[in-house]
Specification:
Layout (H helix, E strand, L loop, with lengths): L4 H10 L6 E4 L4 H8 L2 H4 L4 E4 L8 H9 L12 H17 L5 E4 L15 E6 L2 H11 L3 H24 L2 E4 L2 H10 L5 E3 L20 E5 L5 H21 L4 E5 L5 H4 L7 E5 L5 H5 L3 E4 L9 H8 L4 E3 L16 E2 L3 H13 L1 H18 L2 H19 L5
Parallel strand pairs: 1-2, 3-4, 4-5, 5-6, 7-8, 7-10, 8-9, 10-11, 11-12
Helix pairs in contact: 1-15, 6-7, 9-13, 12-14
């Protein structure tokens, strides 16, 4: 689909009170056609404009990009003509559609909003790249990789520090990420709008769990997910297999790196790559794991598992921003031996698995509906718009 799933869910909630124009990149022609063929999706947007992808950069453009220590997603130096054209295209679209507020989805799109449009703008960065970079920097031991992470961290810090000057509101999906932004720019207006979940789409089905099946989902090209998959496969799963020889570990998600693909050579480990629908994998799981040691922000993979009433075993970092409790909605473990012990425990105790599943679903229903998140966003947008127009909040 054009844009992120979080963006679609939030704009779907807003569309009952606003006309929304979407300007976005499309990951693939097939997905775009599938999205456009669903009449329910088209009700959300007054207009959809697909933006062109960046052209192939020149050698000189790449050197100019490196000289400015630019982030990998920036096009200002690598493709300057494209960068200027896209800013002009968005500016013209705002004039043509009489746009009253610009909502920017993710940090990489913020570069295309020209302040000279003089239209109030807010940005939803979801996760703080500065926070992610600082954690990756502490964890990395390879000096060459450490330098690369350091440069990424410094550029992300500079970009996020400047957001408060251009945007009237900066939105994150967890209070931890919001605190990181506040630390960079104390005067910026910030707000946490956590991730929601569609419990009708992600629903449970009775009697489909497969004994011994352990599932981990996510975009496997994302460094924290790659690290988690390797960590579980190499340090936790062998302990589980020693007690439960028939256990199977399924790594489900798009873009697995070569290191993740190589894990499929280990006994009992399966790497699917991109799948059309993750629900069958989650539904068939005896337990869903989230062994993250890096990263920031709210983990949708946990919300999905909870909505589908699956027992979850996770690290403490994995539940950041979710306000969950150990032995109530999830089981927490931060060492390989304890993680393996809790996975084995929940696989051997159906009553305990059901209890965790029920508690997880209740938590999602009460605190993570997209309707509640949309209402919070609506209030914040109206306040930002009133402030921009000089009206009372």
């Amino acid at each position: 689909m054009p844009g992120s799933p979080r963006l679609f869910s939030l704009t779907r909630e807003l569309s009952g009170h606003h006309e929304i124009v979407l300007a976005a990149f499309s990951p693939s022609e097939d997905r775009y056609r599938q999205f456009m063929s669903d009449p329910e999706n088209l009700k959300v947007y007054k207009k959809i404009e697909i933006l062109p992808s960046p052209p192939r950069h020149t050698w000189w453009g790449q050197q100019w990009h490196r000289a400015h220590l630019a982030a990998h997603f920036e096009t200002r130096y690598r493709c300057p003509a494209y960068y200027r054209a896209l800013r002009e295209r968005i500016k013209a679209l705002c004039v043509q559609e009489h746009v009253e507020m610009i909502y920017v989805d993710l940090l990489d799109m913020a570069q295309y909003v020209d302040p000279e449009t003089h239209i109030p703008a807010i940005v939803d960065i979801t996760d703080s790249m500065t926070l992610l970079g600082s954690r990756m920097l502490r964890a990395e031991r390879n000096l060459r990789k450490k330098l690369s992470v350091y440069l990424m961290f410094m550029r992300a810090r500079s970009l996020e520090q400047s957001l408060g000057k251009q945007f009237r509101l900066i939105i994150t999906n967890s209070e931890v990420d919001e605190a990181a932004i506040k630390g960079l720019s104390p005067s910026a207006n910030t707000l946490t709008v956590t991730n929601g979940i569609d419990t009708r789409f992600f629903s449970a089905e009775e009697g489909v769990s497969e004994s011994g099946k352990i599932v981990f989902t996510g975009v496997m090209g994302y460094p924290p997910n790659e690290d988690a998959a390797i960590y579980f496969s190499q340090e936790i799963f062998p302990l589980i297999r020693a007690e439960h020889p028939s256990a199977q570990f399924w790594i489900v998600g798009s873009g697995p790196s070569q290191r993740v693909k190589d894990l499929a050579c280990s006994p009992g480990v399966h790497v699917t790559g991109e799948v059309e629908d993750i629900r069958p994998y989650v539904r068939s799981a005896a337990v869903v794991v989230c062994p993250l040691r890096l990263g920031s922000g709210v983990k949708n993979k946990i919300l999905v598992a909870m909505a589908m009433q699956k027992p979850v075993v996770a690290t403490s970092l994995s539940i950041e921003g979710l306000d969950l409790f150990d032995n109530k909605e999830v089981l927490l473990a931060d060492s390989p031996s304890m993680f393996a012990e809790k996975v084995l425990y929940v696989m051997a105790n159906n009553d305990e698995a059901s209890r965790l599943g029920r508690n997880g679903l209740k938590r999602v229903q009460e605190h993570h509906s997209w309707a509640a998140m949309g209402m919070a966003l609506e209030t914040a947008m109206q306040s930002a718009l009133a402030e921009a127009n000089g009206s009372p909040r």
